[in-house]
Amino acid sequence: MPDVVVAIPTYKRPRGLARLLDFLANLETAATVSVLVADNDAEGHEGFDLCQALKGYRWPLHAITVRERGIAPVRNALVREALKGDAQFIAMLDDDEWPERGWLDALLAEQAKTGADVVQGSILFEFETRPRWAETFDGMSDIRNASGPVETLQGAGNLLMTRAALSIVGAPWFDPAFALSGGEDRDFFQRLKAAGARFAWSDEAVARGYVPATRTSFAWALKRAYSVGNSDMRVFLKYGPSAAARAMEFAKVAGALVLSPVLAVLLAFDEVRRRDALRRLFRAAGKVTALCGRHYNEYAVTHGD
Question: Which whole-number Å values give the CA distances from 251 to 246, 255, 283, 284, 288, in the listed order?
C-alpha cells in the first residue's frame, strides 16, 4: 500500500485551504495518506491556525510555518519536512486547488504504469467570472495533456514525486532565487531532467483550480504573461545555453517583439486573437527585461482568500 504525504504550501488563503482540506478528506484511495501544510505567513499564520483547530480530521495532519517569504522556500520546507518520515511519495497541491475523489489513485496508477519519477495531473479552472479571451492565457487556460510519458511538466501544482526523485537533485530542491518571481518549478524540472529523471502525465488525476475576479482582468493577464516570460528567460540563462540555443531564443523574442504589435493592429476587430497577440508581446518583453537583469516578483501579491 503506497505511503503518500500530501504537501500544501499556503499564504493568506484560509478559505481556499479549508476547501482543499475538505476535498482531501473525501478522497477515494487505498493509499496511506498524511497531510502536511506549510504556512508562509509566519506573522498571521491563519493557515497554521486552521490546521491546529481541526479535530477528528480523516488523515494525520501536521502544519508548520515558514518565515522566509516566497514560493520556493515554502516548497523546500515541505519537502524537507516530508522526507523526515518514510513516505514513498510526496504529492503537492496549491491552496487554490482541490482534487477530485480519484485524484491520488490516478496519479499512483500512472506512476506504477510508467515508472516515472514525477507525475503531473491535469488542472481545470473554475472562474468567478470567465473572460471569453482566457483560453490562451497562463493562469486561466486549463492545464491538460494526454496520459503517459512526457518530456517535461507544467508546474508544481497537482504533482506526485517519488522519494528517489528528490534525492537526485538534493536540497534546495526549488531555487530560492525564484522565491517571489515564480519559475522555481520549471527550474526544478530542468534539473531533474538533466539528472536523468523521467516524467509522466495523468489526465485522469484531475484537480480543480479557482480563479478569482482579481485574476481575470486583462491588465492582470498581461502582467502574468510578462512574469512568465521573465522567469522563463532567467531559467534559460541560468544553465549557460550554447551560442546556437541563445541565437534561436533571441530570434524568437525579436520576432515576437516585431510581429505582435502588427498583429494586434491587424486583428483589432477580433478580440480574442488581438489579445493573444498582446500576450505574446508582453511575454517577449518579460524575456527582454530578464536579459537586462531585471526580475518581476509576481508572488509579492496574493489573489483570492
Answer: 8, 6, 14, 11, 12
Place of cell 492545464: 143
Which CATH superfamily does the domain covering 3-214 fall into?
Spore Coat Polysaccharide Biosynthesis Protein SpsA; Chain A (3.90.550.10)
Indicate the Cα dihedral angle 190, 205, 301, 223, nearest 10°. Answer: 70
Q: Which grid coordinates are listed for 283?
A: 511575454
* Per-residue model confidence as pLDDT tens digits over 188-237: 999 999 999 999 999 999 999 999 988 889 999 999 999 999 999 999 99
297 neighbors 180 (Cβ within 8 angstroms): yes
Are the beta carbons of 65 and 48 closer than 8 angstroms? yes
**CA neighbor of 18 nearest in space, from 62, 43, 41, 48:** 48
pTM exceeds cut of 0.70: yes
Short-list 171, 175, 199, 194, CA closest to 107: 199
pLDDT tens readout for residues 44-85? 999 999 999 999 999 999 999 999 999 999 999 999 999 999
